[in-house]
Amino acid sequence: MPGPTEDASIPTIATLKVRSEFLAVRGGLRASCGSFLIEGRKRACKESAPANDASRIGYTVTKKLGKAVDRNRIRRRLKAVVAGHAKAHLEPGFDYVIVARNLALSRPFQELVSDLTRTLDKLHGRQTSKSFKAQANLPESNKKNPT
Known about the structure:
There is one protein chain. The protein is α/β, with parallel strands linked by helices. It has a single domain (13-125), classed as Ribosomal Protein S5, domain 2 (2-Layer Sandwich), CATH 3.30.230.10. It is 30% helix and 18% strand. The chain contains four helices and five strands; from the N terminus they run E-H-E-E-E-H-E-H-H.
């Protein structure tokens, strides 16, 4: 029985493994929600990747979040959310790092899914709803001054 067909327009997902790849992403765009922070950066053409248009994702879960059992559970939950729901929101040729926060362990799965999609849209400047403001990535001259 053949497996599900992949849509050619949706980028594949690879994993960041090396520390230098994680550090390279730190200088890029950032967007956050209560469950996690997402950092993203467009990959240079010369950098190694499975394919130039493949998105790569790394996961960071620090020891501040609990014992190894809790950290592994958070990592598994984030990987499941990304694998099942993030492909349509990823940009081709981008590297992402998801930095987990405390709420990632206790938040219901469907809320993690909505957090991920909204945060990715916020990261790329695509506003999804009026309640979710996407001004984090605008230049200082474009931000509204509270007067």
